[in-house]
Design brief:
Blueprint lengths: L1 H7 L7 H11 L9 H8 L3 E6 L2 E7 L4 H14 L6 H13 L1 H22 L10 H20 L12
Antiparallel strand pairs: 1-2
Helix pairs in contact: 1-2, 2-4, 3-6, 4-6, 5-6
Amino acid sequence: MELDAELLTTLPGVGKEGAAYILAEIGNNMDQFPNEQHLASWAGMSPGSNESAGKKKSTRITHGDKYLKVLLVQCAWAATRTKNTYLRSKYDSLVGRRGKKRALVAIGHKILIAAYYILQDKVAYRELGAEYLQEIKKEKQIKRHIQLLKEMGVEIEIKKEVA
């Protein structure tokens, strides 16, 4: 149990007390949840969805463990104050579109999913870095532009620069 708490403290925004509270609420045995979505649903951190006539509308998060939800949002606040982390860059990308509070719930959801895998695999959190989202966006843009050029009938040869 002590090792699990130390592993959880590797998450940005989760300190010793936060790790202890997370372990107290969900335990360290992840076999009780078939996958990470079941844990998020049980905790009440999964986004609600309302779909009608092909339109998807976002709704409130589901009911669940109210103490864990409060803790995860507090950890999300702390995680968004860290510099050069994946969670900070994800928050920055969401806050403009969704607003501060919804972005915090999304970061809390990410922390819970990471905690699930940390407790299941018994490995420390691996930081992806602040540039991770930018690299993914760049690759998607390149792929999209190549597809548009092919649709226009332009033949192109791709050479990657090695830095």
